[in-house]
Amino acid sequence: MSIILCACSSGKTYAECCQPFHLGTICPRTPEQLMRSRYSAYTLNLVDYLWETTHPLKRYLHSKADIESWAKANHWLRLEIVQAFNAVVEFKAFYQQGLRQFVHHERSTFKKEVGKWYYFTGEHFH
Ligand SMILES: [Zn+2]
């Protein structure tokens, strides 16, 4: 049996890391867990998961088509959590387009509604 490591760079297997979140078996308990599961959802093109974990008040800013094209346009390399505190997670997502490598550096804010964390807003660094 092969062991599939989770794409979020946690070093854990997918089954022990983000898969239960993607399957809806359990909900992420911290913003960092949600952030990691959203990154790995991009690598797996799980558009519905990304949509459903976006805060309902912020969904108008996104579309499933945009999420899907961004997920598919990039070859996702790895995730680095810079810092996580309270409802904030700063991270770097490394990805490749063709032969060029890029870093998406963002400080995301999450919001809890009825016991469930959602992605609320993101501040990008350039
Ligand atoms: Zn993971």
Question: What is the 3D form?
Answer: globular
Q: Which architecture name does CATH use?
A: Roll
Helical content stands at 25-40%
Listed once per kind, the bound small molecules are: zinc ion
**Spans where pLDDT lies below 50 across 5 or more residues:** none
- State the total count of DSSP E strands: 4
Count of individual domains: 1
What structural class do the secondary elements suggest? alpha+beta
The level-1 CATH class: Alpha Beta
Strand fraction equals 35-45%
Q: Describe the sheet with the most strands.
A: 4 strands, antiparallel
Kindly report how far apart the N and C termini lie.
42 Å
Roughly how many Å is the radius of gyration? 14 Å
Oligomeric state of this protein: single chain
Please characterize this protein's 3D structure.
This protein has 126 residues and is an alpha+beta fold. The chain has helices at 19-23, 31-44, 47-52, 64-73, and strands spanning 75-85, 88-97, 100-113, 116-125. The protein starts with 18 loop residues before the first helix and ends with a strand. The site of zinc ion has 7 residues, from helix 2. Residues 6, 8, 10, 17-18, 36, 40 line the site of zinc ion.
List the SSEs and their pairings.
Layout: H1 19-23, H2 31-44, H3 47-52, H4 64-73, E1 75-85, E2 88-97, E3 100-113, E4 116-125
Antiparallel strand pairs: 1-2, 2-3, 3-4
The protein binds zinc ion.
